[in-house]
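Limitations
The C-alpha cells in this dataset are predictions for the assembled complex, not deposited experimental models. Users should treat interface geometry with appropriate caution, especially where small molecules or nucleic acid strands are included. An illustrative entry is reproduced here so readers can see what is and is not provided.
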Amino acid sequence: MEYTILILLLPFLSFLVLGLAGMKMSNRLAGTIGTVVLGIVAVASYYTAFDYFAAGRGADGTFPTLMPYNAVWLPISESLHIDMGILLDPISVMMLVVISTVSLMVHIYSFGYMKGERGFQRYYAFLSLFTMSMLGLVVATNIFQMYLFWELVGVSSYLLIGFYYTKKEAIAASKKAFIVTRFADLGFLVGILFYGYYAGTFTFTPQLQMLASAGAMIPLALGLMFIGGAGKSAMFPLHIWLPDAMEGPTPVSALIHAATMVVAGVYLVARMFPLFIGYAPEVLHWVAYVGAFTAFYAASVACVQSDIKRVLAFSTISQIGFMMVGLGVCTSADPHDGGLGYMAGMFHLFTHAMFKALLFLGAGCIIHAVHSNEMSAMGGLRKYMPVTHITFLIACLAISGIPPFSGFFSKDEILTACFAFSPVMGWVMSFIAAMTAFYMFRLYYGIFWGRENKELHARHVPHEAPLSMTVPLIFLALVTCGAGFIPFGEFISSNGQSYTIHLDSQVAITSVCIAVVAIAVATWMYLRERQPVADQLAKTFKGLHRAAYHRFYIDDIYQFVTHKVIFACVSTPIAWFDRHVVDQFMNFLAWCTNASSEEIRSWQSGNVQQYTRVFLGGVLVLVLVLLLI
Amino acid sequence: MIQMEYYLVVSTIMMFAGIYGFFTRRNLLAILISVELILNSVDINFAVFNRFLFPGQLEGFFFALFAIGVSAAETAVAIAIIINIYRNIRNIQVKNMNELNG
Amino acid sequence: MNILSLFVLVPLLMLLGLWLSKSINQIRGVMVAGSTALLGLAVALVFMYLGERASGNTAEMLFMADYVWYAPLNIHYTIGVDGISVAMLLLSAIIVFTGTFASWRLQPLTKEYFLWFCLLSLGVFGFFICIDLFTMFMFYEVALIPMYLLIGVWGSGRKEYSAMKLTLMLMGASALLLAGILGIYFGSGATTMNILEIAALHNIPFEQQCIWFPLTFIGFGVLGALFPFHTWSPDGHASAPTAVSMLHAGVLMKLGGYGCFRVAMYLMPEAAQELSWIFIILTTISVVYGAFSACVQKDLKYINAYSSVSHCGLVLFAILMMNSTASTGAILQMLSHGLMTALFFALIGMIYGRTHTRDIRELNGLMRIMPFLAVGYVIAGLANLGLPGLSGFIAEMTIFNGAFMNDDVFHRTVTIIACTSIVITAVYILRVVGKILYGTCTNEHHLKLTDATWDERLAVIFLVVAVAGLGLAPFWISDMIHESVLPIVSHLALN
Amino acid sequence: MRPELSLIAVILLLFFFDLFAKGKARDYFQPLACVLMAVHVLVNVVPSREAFSLFGSMYQYVPMMSIVKTVMAIGTLVVILQASNWLVGDDTRHKQGEFYVLLLSTLLGMNFMISAGNFLMFFIALELASVPMACLVAFDKYKHHSAEAGAKYILSALFSSGLMLYGISMLYGTTGTLYFDDMAARLSGTPLQVMALVFFFSGLGFKISLVPFHLWTADAYQGAPTTVTGYLSVVSKGAAAFTLMVILMKVFAPMVAEWQTVLFWLIIASITIGNLFAIRQQNMKRFLAFSSISQAGYVMLGVIGGNAMGMTSLVFYLLVYLAANLAAFGIVNVIERNSGKLDMDDYNGLYRTNPKLAFLMTLALFSLAGIPPFAGFFSKFFIFMAAFSEGFHLLVVIALLNTIISLYYYLRVVKAMYINPSDAPIATFRSDGYTRLSLVLCMAGVLLLGIASSVYDGIHLFSFGL
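Predicted assembly:
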C-alpha cells in the first residue's frame, strides 16, 4: 500500500506551493489547488480503507497492522531512535477517513465562506498544513512521531485561530490555545521520556519483559501522556482554550475544534489502549472520571451561553468527555466483557465528527447570514434559510441521541459500557446526555424559532448560503443519517476481534426517553416568542446562572495565575534580580577598582621626601617580613 | 684600642642622621648634604670592615674611594639641576617641587 | 596544503584585500568573494569528511597536520577536525556569509568594519580547526578582541559601556582559562599541548583537576553565557550592530560550549564527574532563568539575548549530562541556536534599521507593512520554540532524551525543570510576535516603511533554508556528530 | 667585550664630531648618529658563543648578555631616531652632541652593569647609567617640569644608591669579598645578609621601578623629554631587570627562598598598584609610566622562576615590550611635537584625522595588553608559563586577573581615538622620516616577533651559563 505516502505528501506540497507562491495566485486558483489536492487525498484514504478492510482479517481474527513505510529519522541512541513512517491499523484507517472527509467538506465550504477574504491563499495553505499534520499524527508509527505531528497540529491550529491577525481577540485566543496545549504537551513529552527510557523504544509495541521490569513507571508515563491528550482534547481544567478558539474562521472551528484535532487526545488514549489496559487500568479509570466531570461541566456551561459558537464549543468538550468516558470505563480488552467502551468511544468519535462538523458549518451559514454570533441577533431564521434549518435539525437530533440518527447508536454504546462499569457512572452519563439534548434544542429554537430580532432582519434580510456551502451541509447530513447503521464493531473493537453491535434495549429506551423529555422541556421553554420560564429561572438562580455564563470563572483563575503569578511574581523579579543584583555585582567590581585607585592617589603626593619615606618603609617591611617569617 | 663596633655605631648614626635629614629638610641643598652623610657612613663601613675583618686586602678601601668619587659626581649633577630649578622658579624649597603628582 | 589551513588563509587574504581596496564596491567584492569561498570550503570539507569516514577512516581527528611552532615550549600548530568541528565550521561559514550581506549597507568606516569583522572570523575558524591548546587559546582571544571596536564604534545605545563590559568580562574569563590551560599542560606532563596527546596520557592528578576544571569550565562557560556570568550578553547584543550580534550569538557563544566539551570535560574527566553537579545546577538555572527574564523584556534584542542565555545554558547542561546522546544534542543545539539566533538578530537589525526602535511597545502591525521580514520573524520564533521540522526541535529532543538517561533523582529533576523552558519559550516568543507583528499599525511613521531589500532577503532566506534543512533531515549530521562525540564521552565514562 | 668597545668608539666619534663639526656639517649630526648606532647594532648582532671573563673576572660574559646588550642597542637606536624631531628644536639644536654622548654613556654603563662580575664594577656601572640619565631627564632646561623631574630623579637615585651601598657594605662585611663568584660561595643567609639582600635589592628595584621603589617614576617620566622617557621606560628598565636576574641567580643563589619571597610580594604590589594608578591617568606619558610599572612586575615573573625558560622569556619579553612601548612613546612624542597635546582627551577622534597613527597606536597598545596575534600576547604567555612551571600558580593567577585592569586602561586610549567624539581633534599632520622609520621598526617587531618563532628560538639557543 505504498500509495499511502501520497496522503501525507500531497497536502504538504500544496502547503509549500500555496505558502510560497500563494501571493502570486488568484484566490480561485489557490482554493482550487487546495481543494483538488484534498479531494485526491480523500479518495486515497477511502481507497486505503477499502483496500485495508477488504484484505480481510489475519489468522488470529484481527486486522493486521501494516507499515508501508518506516525509516529512522533521528537516531537518539543505540537502541532509541525516532522513526518516520505510516502505520495502518483499524483506528488509524478510520481516522484517515474521518479527517479527509471533514477536511474536504471544509475546503469546499470555505470557497463560499471565505469569499473575498484577505489572505485567502494563506488560509488554504494553513488548511493544507493542518490536514497534513493531522494525517501524519494518526498514521504515526511511534509515539515520538505522534508527538512531532502533535506539535505541528498545535502550530497550524495557532495559525488558523489567529487567521484574522488584526483582531485583538483572535491574537489572544491563538496565543492562549497554543500556550495551554503546549503546557499540556510538556506532560506528554515527559511521559514520552519516561516511556522511551523504560520501554526501551518509542514504538507502540515494546518488549513485554521491559515493561514488566519498569514497574510503576509505565502508569506514570501513561498518566503524563494523558495530560497531553487532555490538553489537546480540552479536558477540564485544560479546556479553556477551546471556547476562545472560536475566534478563528468558522470552517476552521468545524475542522479543527470540532471534528479532528480535539479528538487527538482520544485517539492517543485509544492508541495506547493495550498498555493502559495491560499495565495501568487505574489510570484508565481516572481518564473516565476526568471525562465524566468535563462532560458535565461543559454541558452545564453550554446551557446558558448566548454565543452559538461557544455553545457548540462546550458541547464539543462535553462530547469528547463522552468519548473519554467510553475509553475509560473499559476494564478488559474483551468487548464482550468490559471492553465495549473502546469500540463505543471510537464509534462516537466517528459519528460526532460528522454531525459536529455539520453543526459548525450550519452555524457558519447562520453567522454568514446575520453577521453575528449572538443568539439575540437570530431567532425565526427557519423561513429565511431552509436547507441550513433542516440539516441543523438533523444534527441536533443526532447529538441528542434520537434514533435513527448516528449519534443515538454511538452514545447508546457508551452508556451501555458505563452501566457495565458502574450504575452510578451510567446514570450520570445518561443525565449529561439529557442535558445535551436540552441545550442543543435550546440552541436550535433560539436560532430558528423563538423571539426573532425583527428590526435587524428588516435592516438586512438573512439569505440562504450559496451552493458551495450548502452542498457540504447536505452531504454531512446524509452521512449523519446513515452512519449509525455502519457495523462499526466489525471493523474496530478493543481486541481487534469482530464484534457485532447489539442494542441493549433497556439502556436504549431509557436514553431515548430521557432525550425526548429534555427536548420537550427545551421546546416548552424556548419555542415561543415569549420565554417566561427561562427568564424566570435565570432570575431565580441568578448567581448560578452568572457563574455558568462566566464558565465558572475558570478563565479568570487562569488569567490570575498567568499574569499575576507568572509575570508579576516570577518573571519581573527575576529580570529585576538579573539587572540589579547579578549585573550590578560586575559593575560593583569595576566601581571598587576605580574607588581604590582614587583612594591611593595621595601616595603619589609629588613630594620627593615622601617618596623616599615610602622607599625606606618598603625596605624595612621587606626585611621584617623576611626575618620574622 | 677602639673596637669595630664603635665605628659601626658612628656610621649607623650617620646613616640614620642622613636619612632623617633627607626626610625633614625643606631645602634641596640641605637634603643633598644629608645624602652625603648617608654615602659617607657607607664609606666608613667599608673602611672599617676592611681594616678590622679582612686586613689582608684592600677591596673595601678601594670601594670607599670609588664611592667617594662617584658620589662627588652625583652631587655635582644634583647641584647643577638644583641651580636649574632656581633659575626657573627662583627658589629651591622642596614644597615648590610638587607640580608633578597624582 | 592542508584544506583546514585554508580556513585561516582565506580570512588573511580577505584582510589583505580589504587593506588594498579603495571603493565600497571593491570592499563588497572582497567580502562576498571571501565569504563565499569560506562557505564553499566548509561544504567541501563536510563532504570530504563524510567521504573519509565512509571509506572506513576511524581516526579520532581527520585531515590532521602538525607544524612545530615554538620548539622550546612544545607549542605546535596542530590542526585536525572531527564531526563536531566540521559542523561548527559549517555553521561559522554560514553565519559569516549571511553576516556579510546583513551588513551590506553599513556606514561609516565600512572598510575598518570589515577588517575587524574578518579578524573576528579568522579567530573563529582558527579556534575550530586547532587541537593545540596554545593555538586554540590564541585564536580564541583573536576572536574576542575585535568585538570591542565593532560594538564600540558601530554599535548603538550605550555602546561604550556595553563594549567595555563585554570585553572585560570575556577577557577576564579567558584569564581564568589561561591559568586552566597552563594547569592542564603542566599537570599532564605532556610533551606537547596537543589535546589528543594530553587526553591519551590522562594523568592529571585528581586534586589538580579539581582546581583547573572549574577555571577552564568557567573560562569557556562565560562565553557560553553561564549563569551568573551572562550579564555581558544582553547589553552586548543590544548595543552591537546587526552582523556583529549575528556572529557573536551565532558563532562566538559556541566557542564556549565547544571549549567546555573539547577541553574542560575531555581533558579532566575525573574532576568533571566530581564537580558536574555544581555546574548542572548553574546551567539549569540559566536555562529557566533566561527564559523567565525574557518574558518581561521590552527590547527585542534583550528578549533575544535572554533566550540565548536560556538556549546556550541548555548546551552546557547537555554537555554535563556526559552521555553520547546528550552531547550530540548539545552540538545540534549549538548549530540550531547559532542559525536561528543569527536569523533573529538579522531580522531585528533589519526592523530596527527601518523603525529606529526596538521597543515592543512602540511596534505593532508590522505583518501588513513588511510581510517578508514579519514572516521570517515568525519562522525564527517557531524555530526558537522548537517547532518540529525546524532545527530547534531535534536539538532539544535529543538533549532531553539524553539527559533522561541518567536515572537518578537529581538528573531527572533538573531535566524536567529544564523541559519547562520550552513552555516559557513559547510564552515569550508568542508575546513578541503577537505584540509587534499582529494587530494594526498605530504609528503613522511606520506605515510607509518598505520591505526587505534584495541583500537582506538573501541573508534571511539563506538562514531560513539552513534552519529548515537541519530540522527536516537531521539524521546525517546527527550521525556525523554522534560518532565524533563517542571518543570524548567514552573517555568521560572511563572512570 | 665587543659591544662596549664599539660603543665607546661610537661615543668618541660623536664627541669629536660635536667638537669639530661646524656650520652645515652639523646638519649631518642626526644621520651620523643613526648610522653609527646602526653599525654598532650590526656589529654585535651575532653574539660570540663561548663564555669568558676579563680583568680577574671583574667583567664576565655569557652569550645571553650580548643578546641583551644588542636589544638595548636597538632600543637606543630607535630612541635616537625618535629624538630627531625634538633635537632640531631651537633650544636643543646646539646641544645635540651632549644628548648623544649622555645617552650613549648611560647605555655603556648598562652594558658594563650587565656584564659586571664584581660589586665595585657593578656600582660604578650603575652610577654611570644613572647619573647621565639625570642630565637627560633635566635636558629641557627651560622647562620647569623637566628640571623638577630631574631633581626628583637624582635625589631618589642618590638615596637609593646610598641604601644599596649600605647593603653592599654589609655583604662585604659578612663575606669579605666583592667578587660575585666568591660571594656566592660564602653567603649563608644570616639575618644581616638577608637585610643586605633587601637593601641591595632596593637599589635595582629603584631602576626597574618596582613598587614601593617606584614613586619617582611617574614624575620623572612626565617631566622628562618624551624620547628620554621612552628610553627610561624601556632600555634602562630592561638592563636593570636583566642585571637583577643575573645577580640574583649568580650571587644570591644560596638565598633563593628569600629573594623569591621578596619578588613574590613585589610583583603583586607592582602589577596591582601600577594598574590602579594607570586607570585614571590623563597625561599620556604619566599613563604609560604607570603601565610600565605594572609591566615591570610582569617582567619580574621571568626572574622569579630562576630557570632557563624564565631567562629566555624575560629577554623575549624585554624585546617585545621594547618594540611596543617605544612605538607608543614614539607616537605620543610625534603628536606632542606637532600639536603640543599630551592628554588622553586630546586624542579624541584621532582616528578621523590621523588614521595611520591611531591604528599603529592601537596595535602597540594591544601588544602591551597582550592581545593576539600581536607579539605582546606571546611574551606574556611565555613569561606566565615560565613562572607557572616553577609552581607559582597563585602568583600567575593574580597577574592574569590584573591583565583585565590593564586591558581596561589600554582600551581607554583606543576608545578615545576611535569612539569618543571630539569638536577639536588633533589636526592631520605628516610625521618626519626618522619617526616613521622608527615606527616601522617597532611595528615590524610588534607584528612579527610573535608569529615568527625564530626570534624566540634564537634567544633560547643562548639561555645558558647562569
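Some entries come with short summary sentences. For this one: The interface with chain D takes residues 69-73, 75, 134, 138-139, 141-142, 145, 148-149, 152-153, 159-160, 164, 167-168, 171-172, 175-176, 178-179, 182-183, 186, 211 of chain C (CB under 8 Å).
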